[in-house]
Design goal:
It contains ten helices and four strands. It is α+β, with helices and mostly antiparallel strands. Helix 8 (186-200) packs across helix 9.
């Protein structure tokens, strides 16, 4: 049985991390037997989660997990030719290297969002760590987003950036059920968690409103949650 090291469920999601939920969806799609192990700290080869314990060792990134699953014969891009596979690859990169910054800013940098993120991620920590680590990690996230450039932009420019990404996703989706085919693929496993978490954010933000104004994407999120998400709860976990 494969063991997925993951952050715990939170915010109505199987994990508070979109990358962990992506890995869960990939594992569900693969048909392999797996269970989560909930972690408080990013305990993986690259000091982030998810990380997958396999017979070949610990795989320490969601895209590396995808590559490993494909190597085992799992059809993660069913029926894709080389061009479709390349388009799916670029779509995943758009989500994870562009839209990700908007979700992270909404959760970690905006004070109203941080009010909810802090207890969701750090509430289970022992009190001494809970008094220090949240602001330490928030500072690192703030610095990273500044050096990346996203939070240097004005809010209107950030939303123009995000709006272009959401429009592109909606155009790729078209009138279909899934991004590239009549069947879901790894691209959907990447897209749905990010969009779902943007929508589920408990604070009214320009990002949430931008997503909710795009009806086809909202229908896509509902369909993806229903068909791709695993049945997990905070009590379902293997022992360390």
């Amino acid at each position: 049985m494969l063991i997925l090291r993951s952050f715990r469920p939170g915010g109505g999601e199987p994990s508070y991390s979109p990358f962990c939920v992506k890995a869960m969806c990939l594992l569900e799609m693969s048909g392999m037997d797996w269970r989560p192990r909930w972690e408080t700290m990013p305990n993986g080869p690259y000091r982030h989660l998810p990380a997958l314990e396999t017979p070949d060792g610990v795989i320490g990134d969601s895209n590396l997990i995808l590559r490993w699953l494909e190597a085992q014969g799992a059809p993660m891009f069913p029926g894709f030719d080389a061009t479709a596979r390349a388009m799916a690859h670029m779509t995943i990169r758009t989500i994870e290297e562009s839209l990700r910054h908007a979700l992270t800013t909404q959760r970690w940098i905006d004070d109203a969002g941080w009010h909810h993120t802090k207890p969701a991620l750090f509430g289970a920590m022992p009190a001494p760590l809970r008094a220090v680590l949240p602001e330490l990690f928030r500072g690192r996230v703030r610095k990273g987003l500044h050096w990346q450039g996203f939070t240097r932009l004005s809010e209107s420019d950030r939303m123009a950036w995000v709006g272009a990404d959401l429009d592109a996703l909606e155009d790729v989706l078209g009138d279909g059920d899934w991004l590239f085919d009549a069947r879901p693929s790894a691209a959907d496993c990447a897209a749905v968690p990010f969009l779902s978490m943007m929508n589920a954010h408990p604070v009214d933000t320009p990002l949430r409103r931008a997503l909710r104004s795009r009806g086809r994407l909202m229908d896509y999120v509902a369909r993806g949650r229903l068909q791709l998400y695993p049945e997990v709860s905070s009590s379902l976990s293997v022992a360390a």
